[in-house]
Amino acid sequence: MQGNRSRDTAPExxxxxxxxxMGLRYRVxxxxxxxxxRTADLVFTxxxxxxxxxxxxxxxxxxxxxxxxxxxxxxxxxIARNRERDEQTTAALASHGWLVLRFWSHEDPATVARxxxxxxxxxxxxxxxxxxxxxxx
Length: 137
Known about the structure:
Helix content is 44%, strand content 15%. It has four helices and four strands.
């Protein structure tokens, strides 16, 4: 499993290229909250948006996940733990004022990029960054 990439996957790179082409700048493989041991794929620090591109197999996509035929006693709990950790991460970041966007690796990168752009522009327009800088929620 050490050979499996945790960052710079093909779906992630496609989304990053599309978002960058739209003029948005972001941090890659960054911890939105330093005390939380979770790394988001893309982080928009001023807008406080964390983006995760979840792999269909590793995160148990309801559309594409196929349980392995061998070693089920290992894989079933592992995928369940991954899903549980995803939920905990989303809740923890949301409680700190972050907007968490999760996408499956099979989703169209252009559509994902448009959704991300709309969220970033919307948060910027609503003044999230200004309120945070002033010490507000």
